[in-house]
Design brief:
There is one protein chain. The protein has one domain (3-297). The protein has helices at residues 3-24, 30-46, 60-87, 90-113, 119-139, 149-152, 157-183, 187-209, 216-223, 225-245, 251-257, 261-273, 278-297. Helices cover 79% and strands 0% of the residues.
Length: 298
């Protein structure tokens, strides 16, 4: 991978870790937080579109189809991720999602997009995924009370939701790569397009839920406006950087490399929540770094 692509992906990882930490702290706010997050992200980044060339001559129909499909997939991703954060600890949910997502993305990239990374790059991607999974395994509490159907089947609910989040990640990653590269869509306008779709989707859900959720919209913006502002800036910035990187590097390599954010989230959890097994966590983080180094050398 080129140095520019690596810089874009690693910068995206920092932004991604930051907004997930913020989102985890707001998991109890449910759908109202997601609605406000999509509204603020759309509004803030819409002002950036004219400074990035607008649609840059892209076909409007391809833009609408790509943005709408991505928005639907991102809605599923946000709902699964927040549900996972409500069910379990930050590190386990995040690492499970970010570990399973690149595996599925790599498979799709090979089968659907026809990408053929070199052997060293593939080994590096595998090492990154293994390191991410290790972070998730180490991060799981040794003893925790589990309830519900997932517990009766022996599957912790945070793992179930983490894997479902990973499926959504793979889906929108491949969809966006196809839309961006084959239709020549610009990153910022494309992002705003699918966040507008998110706003519409979350609005329909709020209407269907009736008054049970709607009254909390006001309280969420009053209490959590700071978190929402951070979310509205960093979540789009993170993915815009990734979308830009997909134009110059294989998605099968970008997907695992961006998971360096798992290291940052894990280290934050050790500091913020006083989680144990710090040596093992650092070792797993080292595995992720080694995999990234192999990808960089390819």
């Amino acid at each position: 991978m080129s140095a520019i692509a690596i810089a874009l992906v690693l910068s995206a990882a920092v932004c991604h870790a930051a907004w997930n930490i913020v989102s985890h702290g707001s998991s109890g706010s449910g759908l109202p937080f997601l609605w406000w997050g999509a509204v603020i992200a759309s509004g803030l980044w819409a002002f950036v579109i004219p400074f990035t060339g607008g649609l840059q001559g892209a076909d409007p129909w391809a833009f609408l189809v790509g943005a709408a499909g991505s928005g639907v997939l991102h809605i599923g991703y946000m709902l699964a991720l927040q549900r996972g954060y409500a069910a379990g600890d930050l590190t386990t949910v995040y690492a499970t999602a970010r570990g399973s997502g690149p595996v599925l993305t790599g498979v799709f990239a090979l089968l659907v997009l026809g990408e053929r990374p070199g052997p060293l790059a593939l080994v590096g991607a595998l090492v990154v995924v293994l390191g991410v999974i290790a972070v998730g395994v180490i991060g799981r509490p040794r003893t925790a009370l589990r309830t519900g159907p997932a517990r009766r089947r022996g599957i912790p609910p945070e793992i179930v939701w983490g894997v479902l989040t990973g499926v959504a990640i793979a889906g929108y990653t491949v969809w966006d790569a196809i839309s961006m590269n084959r239709a020549g869509l610009p990153a910022v306008a494309y992002f705003v397009g699918f966040t507008v779709t998110e706003v519409l989707g979350f609005s329909v859900m709020l209407l269907l839920l009736g008054r049970r959720e709607r009254p909390s919209l006001g309280s969420v913006i009053r209490i959590q406006w700071g978190r929402l502002l951070v979310f509205g800036v960093l979540s789009p910035l993170s993915y815009i950087l990734v979308l830009t990187a997909t134009k110059i590097a294989p998605i099968a390599l970008i997907a695992p490399m961006r998971e360096v954010s798992v290291i940052l989230v894990s280290l934050y959890s050790v500091w913020r929540f006083k989680q144990d097994r710090a040596v093992l966590r650092i070792g797993a983080a080292g595995v992720v770094v080694a995999g990234i180094a192999l990808i960089g050398l390819s």
